[in-house]
Amino acid sequence: MALMKRSLAIGLVLLALVSGNVFARPLQSLFDFGMGVRAAGLGEAFTGLADDEYAIYYNPAGLAKLSQLHVSALFESHFTASTYFTLAAATKTLGLGLLFFDLGSMAVTDSSNNENGTFDYSSFALLAGYGLGLPADLSLGIRLRFFGYGTTDASKKSVSGGAIALDPGLMWAPDSLNLGPVTNLRAGLLLELPGLSWAKDENFPFGVRLGLSLKAIKALTVATDFSLADGFHLGFEYSLKDVAPQVQRLDVRLGLMTRGGVQLSLGLGVMVSGIQIDYAFISHDAGGSHRLSASYTLNFKLF
Question: Which residues neighbour 135 within 8 Å (Cβ) at sequence distance 6 or greater?
Fold first, then answer.
């Protein structure tokens, strides 16, 4: 057990530097670092918004509100060795997601700086979600999440583990409700349950995320989240449409979150010929992280 915690701590510290999160827990791992670039630019205030493929991560109830097929991918390489990759796809009612992190091989040294072998760490997560529309502008969702990890220390001793959980989500989206300049009001709730673990004495922690989003004016979206695990999140997105030939949309984003201290994020999105390119910068103690992703939306309905 001590070896597993020590090994995971090293890998998660480096992943924290990559993703800007120093509040990691062993079996949370990738689930502590958010998913997607747009949400990162909004300070991960996405539980109440959940209006694209990343509803699979932040609130599966949002899947019931989708009307098209959304697909996106993110790839990052850090420190010339580690790799972080995500893939998400969602359409009305259904969504799938993949997260993967590989630290590569790290040299292990003693107090005299002599190399004593290498340390390896990798982890992955799979997500599947379903959203169902209900009366009274409500929707209900369920998210299946699976996480697995593996480490190998300098003595070539391997440790692996993982967990699986089902998490319910709820959304209220009264599309017909207009309060003067305030439209598109949405409220969301996600319960993160411990589930089943095959890592001794460890499991997913219980979590609650509450979110609210609205359009203050036609072009400005405001979103806020509160999480038991990492506190307060706030995000703003200002969107312009048809800004130039072949440029269907331009988004500017600003976010704030209180995970492990106050972190700021900036984001930019542009849609050119139907392809959405998103960028986000997330500040943290190590200086900052950059994320870039590409996504595409198809006029396709499964149901």
Answer: none
